[in-house]
Amino acid sequence: MNAEKILDAKGLACPMPIVKTKKAIGEIESGQVLEIHATDKGAKSDLTAWAKSGGHELLQDTEEDGVLKFWIKKC
């Protein structure tokens, strides 16, 4: 999946992946996609809830070798 911006939040503990995601999503336009890489296991529930509460769309999430990857479309 193509993303306009990639955020590397690996090695960061809660709440930093959310803090950095909020900043990064503000740097892209509506309709564009932000890809986030995180290693904090809590990021899955945190980012899912954050996207929903912010009116954004979580397009996909996967896990590869302990790295959680998320694609969030800015609405």
From TrEMBL:
Matches recorded under Pfam families: TusA
Domain UPF0033 stretches: 7-31
InterPro entries linked to this entry: TusA-like, TusA-like_sf
Record-linked CDD domains: SirA_YedF_YeeD
Gene3D superfamilies per record: TusA-like domain
Domain of life: Bacteria
Family, as annotated: Belongs to the sulfur carrier protein TusA family.
UniProt protein name: Sulfurtransferase TusA family protein
Species, as recorded: Halalkalibacter oceani
